[in-house]
Amino acid sequence: MMLKIVVLAVLAYTAYSKPGVRNKDLEFATEELFRYFGVESHEKAPEYEIVYPLVVEAEGKRSVGKGATAASFLELEVEAFGETLNLIVDHDDSNYAPGLKVEIYTDEGIQKVPLRTDCVYTGKVAGEKDSLASVTVCDGLMAVIFRNHGRGELYIEPLDDEDAVKRDVGRGHPHVAYRNRPVERGAFCETEPPPTLPLTFADEPPEALPIDTKATKYLELAFISDPDLNSRKGGTSATTTCLNTLFNAVSFRMTVYQ
What we know:
Blueprint: E1 4-8, H1 30-37, E2 47-51, E3 54-57, E4 60-63, E5 73-80, E6 83-91, E7 101-106, E8 109-114, E9 120-125, E10 128-136, E11 142-146, E12 153-158, H2 161-166, E13 175-179, E14 222-225, H3 227-233, H4 236-257
Antiparallel strand pairs: 1-7, 1-14, 2-13, 3-4, 3-5, 5-6, 6-9, 7-8, 9-10, 10-11, 11-12, 12-13
């Protein structure tokens, strides 16, 4: 069955580079590499590590499970790549149009499902004033973290239940944290230059329409998931959460640097 998911959002995706898993006992098998990174060998995979995120509360710390966490403020703690990161984030759905829905295209027709935004957060890494953290805790922790001092981006996502069972050590639901390594040609893929099209001009310019300068304006974009991503993520729910996290990260960064 053909399946395609469309979310009104901004397209973003990650590049992959060299291997770097920290614990060989927790190393991904080939099918897991493909599921999480879209590659079939450690040589092409990013540097990754199994992590066990925590929610820090006044009463203590608790592990992040696969359920949703909706709050006005969160402090999250993640031990990854030899350091402890504290993410200080606030609930933030300001970049979402009211009533935004996911459109799911199947052979039977189009389903429209409201996009959950009560578990969407933005903030920073504690102690790193120029960092940006985009977080969703709608189905476990998914995060895109932009760090300063040339440390690049860090990504976190929950393992699916089958993969999590293999790595359950009594510290809560296992997640994977991964990051890219610099490559010689930089962060750009080799692509063909776009074709040059001839310019045409109308005899008379179109009549300008009146603009309401006080009304809220929305930029409507399509964020499309193909059946391959949906298959690798294990269903529409996980795919939607992934796209939601990436949209939140891009829109948050655009808002900060506009």
